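Structure in, sequence out. Go:
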């Protein structure tokens, strides 16, 4: 290789190597500071695209979980109200059975009927109050029921079936104006009450089964979200232990590269010794 003051090939090579080392060092420092080995499409277009698609699914599953959480709350409120109504019906049966006693005097029968009517009003109050976020499964306002999201594509749903526990309905056949003021009326009410208790218990069993299904699916969605997040991490997260070791090596290479460039830059000074007398 010719010795020239115009072209220093050794210095050019040393400079290229040093620039490459600086670029790699900057990349390693960026990966360490962000914790990501793939931050954007420039790093790895295909991996970044896959990760972005999975992030979209994770976001959608967040909406699904929110919907299922709401479903759980709606079901819990309905079940709590239904259990209270079932207890009230049992209390009513005690009153009705007592009212069937033909030996009761007018005062006692009137008192029993007043208690019975108060329990009816309480059932109506509970049915009206069994609402969460505008959804009431027990008052007939939702028709057949309400659907909640079940997957990230929003094309699958879980349904909570409405159970109209209003007085005089399909489940509680007792009318709001019913009375046990006579033994004959009490006998009639007893049959209706027995049927109503059975109907309400069946309705609560259905709601309980649906609530368990929602709870189970909600757990699955949570696990699926965690799995997707783990998969995204496998694709884009940096191995910080490896990056730390890489950083140490690159820092040494940078120092050696700077020293090599310094040596290469001093080479043309040899030309001066050729012209000394």
């Amino acid at each position: 290789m010719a010795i020239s003051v115009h072209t220093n090939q050794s210095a050019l090579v040393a400079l290229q190597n040093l620039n490459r080392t600086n670029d790699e060092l900057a990349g390693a420092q960026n990966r360490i500071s962000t914790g990501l080995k793939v931050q954007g499409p420039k790093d790895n277009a295909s991996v970044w695209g896959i990760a972005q698609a999975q992030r979209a699914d994770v976001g959608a599953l967040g909406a699904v979980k929110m919907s299922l959480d709401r479903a759980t709350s709606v079901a819990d409120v309905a079940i709590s109200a239904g259990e209270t109504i079932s207890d009230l019906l049992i209390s009513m049966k005690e009153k009705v059975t007592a009212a069937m006693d033909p030996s009761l005097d007018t005062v006692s029968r009137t008192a029993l009927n007043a208690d019975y009517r108060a329990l009816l009003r309480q059932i109506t109050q509970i049915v009206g109050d069994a609402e969460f976020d505008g959804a009431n499964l027990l008052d007939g306002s939702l028709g057949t029921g309400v659907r909640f999201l079940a997957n990230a594509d929003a094309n699958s749903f879980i349904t909570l079936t409405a159970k109209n526990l209003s007085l005089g309905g399909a489940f509680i056949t007792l009318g709001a104006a019913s009375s046990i003021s006579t033994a004959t009326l009490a006998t009639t009410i007893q049959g209706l009450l027995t049927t109503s208790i059975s109907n309400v218990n069946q309705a609560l069993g259905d709601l309980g089964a649906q609530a368990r299904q929602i709870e189970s699916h909600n757990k699955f969605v949570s696990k699926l979200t965690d799995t997707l997040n783990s998969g995204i991490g496998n694709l884009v997260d940096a191995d910080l232990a490896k990056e730390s070791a890489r950083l140490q090596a690159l820092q040494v290479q940078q120092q050696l590269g700077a020293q090599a460039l310094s040596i290469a830059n001093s080479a043309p000074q040899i030309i001066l010794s050729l012209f000394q007398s």
